[in-house]
Amino acid sequence: MKTRFDWQLIPSFLAVLQQGSLLGAARQLGSSQPTLGRHISELEQQLGVALFERTGRGLLPTAMALQLAEHAERMAEGAFQLNMAATGSDTLLPGVVRITASQPVAFQLLPPVLSRLRERYPSIRIELVASNTVDNLLQREADIALRMVQPAQASLVARKVAEIGIGAYAHRDYLARCGTPQQLPDLLAHALLGEDQGTTIQRGLQLLGLDLPAEHFVLRTDDYLVYWATVCSGMGIGFLSDHMARKAPDLLPVLPNLRIPAYPIWLTVHREIRGNRRVRVVYDHLAEDLPLELARQLAG
């Protein structure tokens, strides 16, 4: 006779998978290491497979554990949604979710999105890190990342949730002083503002047939807020996201048909923690609300 499957072992399995150790899982669940160890042993016995390899660095999931993880996550999510529907509360969600986002996204798009998240789930606290580096998530320094490049690491799960359109803009005072370009080669006679280490603008112009060396730009910076403020000051022609340019009524489009390739926004999470209920709630909210907020800002 087959042993009856104990569904209550699933939270312990997911916690160990997410944390990589019995100690971390015990802290997450408010339990003890011996209890978590017993739960994993019982689950392995019931399933008849090994789920983790014990190493000096902790517990490494086996191929079977990774295969079962998606099913376990769906089970846990179903139970969680059932409880939420029954109680009408977010009492199972208290805690912190740490988000890292590129500076433009953190500054322009996230504040209203996170404000609405706060209204829906008041027990969740957010830590927001504005950073353009991608190693935060790999080193587990953040739970969720919003990036403009698709991660290549197999341990990360990424979903493209939006695209940010980029255009050329200048302050009306600059155009009054220096004239308005009528065609792409006219940009060579103007003060252009570009990136420092980044190459997106140069590569975008190159694709359009205009090859500009770095020395042609009168100012280069990778700090987006500095870049935006410099364009707004009337120093020259810059390349801004369309929705951000709408925030400054004195910025006018230059060569409206000139379109730099759009920036994608990738919503990224570490494969091993995507089943965490609190992280999943924030992840789903961002996936749903971020494109809507972008559309609102474009509509003015």
From TrEMBL:
Keywords tagged on the record: DNA-binding, Transcription, Transcription regulation
Domain HTH lysR-type: 5-62
GO term, biological process aspect, one: DNA-templated transcription
SUPFAM superfamilies given in the database record: Periplasmic binding protein-like II, Winged helix' DNA-binding domain
InterPro entries listed in its UniProt record: LysR-type_TF_proteobact-type, LysR_HTH_N, LysR_subst-bd, WH-like_DNA-bd_sf, WH_DNA-bd_sf
Domain of life: Bacteria
GO molecular function, one term: sequence-specific DNA binding
Family: Belongs to the LysR transcriptional regulatory family.
UniProt name for this protein: LysR family transcriptional regulator
Organism, scientific name: Leeia aquatica
